[in-house]
Structures are given as structure tokens and as C-alpha cells.
Amino acid sequence: MRITAGLAFIVTAVTSVMALKEAPADLQIGILKRVPAEKCLVRSNNGDQLSMHYTGTLFDTGVKFDSSLDRNDPFVFEIGKGQVIGGWEQGLLNMCIGEKRKLTIPPHLGYGDRGSYPVIPGGATLVFEVELLDIKKGQRNERKGPETVKTNDDEAIISFSSPSFILSTAGILVLFFLVFRMAKKQDIVEAKKAVEKEIKEKK
């Protein structure tokens, strides 16, 4: 009975270990270090230039194949421009400066069936531990948010001094003046008729 229980425990343990080592089919994002919301003043987005430290290992063996920390040289790139693998393009969005993540990247979002010879074999699932060091806002930030409102206001002010606006305003003023003159002339004619009528009645 004890032997049967022991075998069952061993089988369960082995199954659990195998399940843990089974490569995920989709991108997995884990937060290793979270930045408080009040300290996260800007988040990464497509078009931004990111500066990062990273360490990459193979999921199956845990062997390290690259690390910017070993070179003490942060990796700088623009996200959303196809400069990095798909797992990075997706896994590094909406990230705060100082935040650390663990990305488990399946082959179709990494180097695919061909790999990256000689350090990454074909069909490899990759694990990256990354830290975001800095964000330089890209063009997408210049077209959104409060800056857009300011730009629109500037354009509105410029339109008031444009030649088309000045000409249309001048035309309206001239038309108003003519209408005013015609109305005034009509009043004079009517007043003259009233005086002449009054004189005739007195006679």
C-alpha cells in the first residue's frame, strides 16, 4: 500500500515538473518589479525609443545566450518599428520606467524555426528578463493628448489672421455699411415726404 502511494506521489511530481517545463503556445508576461502608479509618469507605446537592460535564456535548458548586463551597455531601439522580435514588440508595451518583466516568448514571436545561429536553435522558446531604463517619446505623443489641444488652438488663432478670413470679414463690413446707408437714405426720404404732407395739410 505504501509502495503504491509512493509511486503515485512520484508520478504526480514528475507530471508536475513536466507541466512546468512545457513551453507555452502564447506570449507570457510576468511582472518582476512593479512601479507604483503615482511614480509611473509615462508608459511605453509604439513609436517610442526605449532603453533597456535584458538577459535572454533558452526555455528548455536555461542556458543564457545574451545579456546587455554583461556588456554594461543598454539596448536602445524604437518599439513598433520592426526592429526587434515580435515578443518584444508586444511584451514591452505599456511599461513604466524602472519596471522589470519576464517574457516567455514562443518561437513564432521569436526567431521561428530557423533560430539565430549559433546561440538560438530553431523552434526555441525564449525567456527574457528585461528592465526599462528610459523612454523617449516618439511621434505618436506629438499627435495626442494635451499637446494636440494646444496645436489646434494655435491653428485656430492663425486662421483668424489668414487672408481669406480678412477678406470675408471686410466683405461683411462693406455689406453692413451699404445696408446701413440705404436704410438711412430711406429714412430721409420718408421724413421728407412726411414734411411735405404736413405742409400741404396746413395750406
TrEMBL record:
What organism is the protein native to?
Mucor saturninus
Q: Which domain of life is it from?
A: Eukaryota
Q: Which PANTHER family match?
A: PEPTIDYLPROLYL ISOMERASE
Q: Which residues form the PPIase FKBP-type domain?
A: 47-136
**Protein name as annotated:** peptidylprolyl isomerase
Q: Name one Pfam family in it.
A: FKBP_C
Q: Per the UniProt record, which EC number(s) apply here?
A: 5.2.1.8
List the Gene Ontology MF annotations in alphabetical order: peptidyl-prolyl cis-trans isomerase activity
The UniProt entry's GO CC annotations, sorted and at most eight, read: endoplasmic reticulum
Q: Which reaction does it catalyse?
A: [protein]-peptidylproline (omega=180) = [protein]-peptidylproline (omega=0)
Q: What InterPro entries does this protein's entry cite? A: FKBP2/11 (IPR044609), PPIase_dom_sf (IPR046357), PPIase_FKBP_dom (IPR001179)
Record keywords, A-Z: Isomerase, Membrane, Rotamase, Signal, Transmembrane, Transmembrane helix
**Bilayer-spanning residue ranges:** 165-183
Q: Where is the signal peptide?
A: 1-19
